[in-house]
Amino acid sequence: MKIFKTWVFPWWEVGLIKICLLSLGIILAVYFQEFFSGLLWLWWALFAATGVYFIARIIKEK
Fold first, then answer.
1. Count of domains observed in the chain
2. How does DSSP assign 21-34, residue by residue?
3. In this structure, is residue 29 part of a structural domain?
4. I need a labelling partner for 16 at 20 to 30 A (CA). Which of 2, 9, 10, 24 fits?
5. Does 32 fall in a domain?
6. What is the spatial distance between Cα 54 and Cα 19, in angstroms, rounded to a whole number?
7. Is residue 39 part of a domain?
8. Dihedral sign from CA coordinates of 20, 24, 25, 30
9. SS3 category, 9
């Protein structure tokens, strides 16, 4: 039995996975609203850091 199997998904299944995870994130954010609002600075910092990383990566590849 192979535990670590390579999976290949078509583009539309990847889209479904993304919609599923986005929905889960929205549900959890609504449920834990008070907890997440106290850490709003952290979410903005994570957003900015990952945005800068991907922008730098795109510029470096050109």
1. 1
2. HHHHHHHHHHHTHH
3. yes
4. 2
5. yes
6. 22
7. yes
8. positive
9. coil
